[in-house]
Amino acid sequence: MAQYYDYEGFVEEVGETQVVGKNGFTKRDVLLGDELNPTSQWPHRIAFTMKKDNCSLLDGVQKGQRAKVRFAIDSRVWNDPKTGKNRFFTDLTALKFELVNGDGTSVEPVPQPPEAPESAGDVGDPDDLPF
Question: What is the pTM of this model?
Fold first, then answer.
């Protein structure tokens, strides 16, 4: 069963989209910190990886913006053919990324509900039912 986590912080760095491997797999990293201007000797910074189509979610994101990311922990094992030993890789794979205000609300505008028809007379012939 997949476990998902949320993290909120300030954007410290947005990487460029990278193409990896022969199949054209794309990935892009974003680094979030827990403080806008870190004064601690060891500030908390976490790197998340956007994969494939999610890379475009970082377009226009700038350093200093507050963001919330939903992510999963993704690990894999690779057997190094040179040494014959297993190597382990762990990524924090970002599934959702949104910019937020200081109070945690989304920066994105809320979509408006569709408008109602102007008049009931536009409905058509009541005997012309679609079923």
Answer: 0.69
